[in-house]
Design a protein that fits this description.
Shape: elongated
Distance between the termini: 27 Å
Radius of gyration: 19 Å
Number of helices: 12
Largest sheet: none
CATH architecture of the largest domain: Orthogonal Bundle
CATH topology of the largest domain: Endonuclease III, domain 1
Helix content: 40-55%
Structural class: mainly alpha
Order of helices and strands: HHHHHHHHHHHH
Number of strands: 0
Length: about 220
């Protein structure tokens, strides 16, 4: 999968930085929004407010004037409130633990994990819509929505080799977005196709395969 990512991964501006502020902005703006629409807003917001301190000093109305055209208009307030909280920290330093990040306004489990993984290069799981769909299909996860979500978070953590969180998470996100699409998935182009439950259902009606997985097995239930 990492070989596929090296050849096919998306070139996005927030992947060229380890600045937690820039990565937080990208994740909040990307929430339920197509990347093509996010890119110009991301560039405009960071061009206007290149540091978290400058965003904290900005009038909320000016921030929202940039972010509101994306829809989901609470995101501008979230970013501004989070910037104020960070600016109040000693030295204006960004939180570097999951718990501290999740205390920022509007920052949930996914966004905190993304900042930990992409800014701090920690092995934190990241579970967006694309990754959840890929893991659900690959492992054949079938459960109630609440139980399924917890299982998917466990799987997202289990598939990260030690020290590879940044690369694996980026690869999963791109593989889910470009190949394991909600509609018309491109299974024939998927590097995981030989051991994927979803692919097996397409090519055969058999409930299971005899061959082992090419990717990490499902973790044992605790």
């Amino acid at each position: 999968m990492l070989g596929w990512y090296a050849a096919n991964g998306r070139d996005l501006p927030w992947r060229r930085t380890r600045d937690p502020y820039a990565i937080l902005v990208s994740e909040v703006l990307s929430h339920q929004t197509q990347i093509a629409r996010v890119l110009p807003v991301y560039e405009r917001l960071l061009g206007r407010y290149p540091t978290v301190t400058e965003l904290a000093r900005a009038p909320l109305a000016e921030v929202k004037a940039i972010t509101d055209p994306l829809g989901y208009k609470v995101r501008g307030r979230w970013l501004h409130s989070a910037a104020l909280r960070v600016a109040d920290r000693p030295g204006g330093t960004f939180p570097d633990t999951l718990d501290e990040l999740r205390r920022l306004p509007g920052i949930g489990r996914y966004t905190a994990g993304a900042v930990m993984s992409f800014a701090h290069h920690r092995d934190a799981p990241v579970l967006d819509t694309n990754v959840a769909r890929l893991l659900r299909r690959y492992f054949g996860v079938a459960a109630t929505p609440r139980a399924r979500t917890e299982e998917l978070w466990s799987l997202a953590a289990a598939v990260i080799p030690k020290g590879k969180g940044y690369l694996i998470n980026q690869a999963l996100m791109d593989l889910g977005a470009l190949i394991c699409r909600a509609r018309a998935p491109r299974c024939d182009a998927c590097p995981l196709r030989r051991s994927c439950d979803f692919r097996q259902e397409i090519v055969s009606s058999r409930p299971a395969r005899s061959r082992g997985r090419a990717w990490p097995p499902r973790p044992h239930a605790k």
